[in-house]
Please model this.
Amino acid sequence: MGKSLRVAYGEALTKLGAENEKVVVFDADLAHATMTHIFAEAYPKRFFNMGIAEANMVGAAAGFAHSGYIPFVSTFALFGAGRAYEIVRNAVAYANGNVKFGLSHSGLSVGEDGGSHQSIEDIALMREMPNMTVLVPCDPTETEKAVFAAAQIKGPVYIRVARPVCEDLTNADTPFIPGKANVLREGKDACIITCGLMLVKALEAAEQLAEAGVEATVVNMHTIKPIDKDIILKMNQSCKAIVTVEEHSVIGGLGSAVAEVIAGHAGAAFAMVGIQDKFGKSGKPEHLFAEFGLTTEHIVKTVKSLVV
Amino acid sequence: MQYDLKATELRREILSMLYACQSGHPGGSLSCVEILMGLYYDVMNVDGKNPKMADRDRFVLSKGHACPALYAILADKGFFPKEDLKKLRQIDSHLQGHPDSGKTPGVDVNTGSLGQGASVAVGLAMAAKHGKKAYNVYALLGDGECQEGLVWEAAMSAAHYQLDNLVFMLDYNKLQIDGSNEEVMSLGNIVQKFEAFGFCCFEVDGHNIEAIVAALKASSDGKPKFICCDTIKGKGVSFMENQFGWHGRPLNKEEFDAAMKELEVK
Model:
């Protein structure tokens, strides 16, 4: 039974709220879209709707962090990371404020709302700020772990939450250590490094590659920052090719983060599957994924182009 | 305390700091001296020996560029040694070009990006109410700063959450970097605007400490409070007063000597 990551996020916040009364939640009139309404119904006194004013929501959350609370801020990724960017930077990250950003509706999978609402740059915006941790959970179970891990980290954390319903790829026993990637499949020829909703496609691609005689490792890079340099450098030495796969612009996202690690090191051939410097548009998520090259077939083709 | 002597002493400190680092913002630092004095010498519950005292009143210098005035007062209150002031804006100093809560004792909130402080102050006041704390939150805003939309987002939320523990003070010197508020972007009737946003408003002479303190201590009828402090940019130095050019320019030797001569304690 699948579940939307945003629902998993709202439920995890509520569970966390039961354990820790310092957890407070902010939303900007999207509580029924980000699913923070689940928390709001359980803990109405710890939920603050700030209206459609994202920058002020972030500033107010910074004030709560300065007062010893653990605020979780939620809205759409585009508005939390984009519109409020400079307040996230100066009021939170610069002060190393203990504010958590659980931003939903990231990537093309927003679908029909179109390019104005599809955040393809939030990972880039968030990860370049000193002090910020960036988590991109791949399924409902990992989303809950990301919420609990964020509360443990002292300082700002961004959790990128996607809208679609998806099946669990991990389970309660799968380790989730921020900064330590999980290897889901091992193969000596190529390494596919991915995060979020693209993990399922990366696993499918590895399956198809195996049928064609190409053995691929699949890495779930659930933490974009601090990125797991050890696994990347190891793969750079042991595989012929590294291919990154992300539902984000290839400028500044996971692919860029991996490229930053391997720069200056001889090793594997490298390619990035992601959104190629284009805005999204309206359409069903699966149609958009096809048009923008976020498909199993495209991953397979890209890996083959480097190793065969 | 003899307020006039203390104000002159603080202005001398401010200009010495700015002269030493050959950068920074003299005009808006000199205009807010009495406002900060009213807060720090008469109203706020803070302790220089215990900067993180749990239930202290909070102050946010939302017009962060006026931090030399704040630093001079914090040093005078014993938050850090006065010798530190000489190192304003230097590479090994805790006194940053704009306030930094991670570096300077007594600074509760980072500011410098205009509008941000107003918003964080709202959060501090909401958190105080949520935690059933009795302390107050004071934020000092600039007039040019009120052109930032974030100030009005913050104002709207302050009224919505009935933050009667929050005071926005305006250093209304009517000048900003490129000229007067009127020339750059008119504020209209700023007091009426805050009134319309749900604040209990006061207007005072921003160089009259007794008047400032009276407004700070007055009831706000369950609303957030706005105190419009009518001030003179560059106050205390004849050739700087009401000159927008002194917003952010360093003093040369002749100007510094002339200013210090005007500020001699007779």
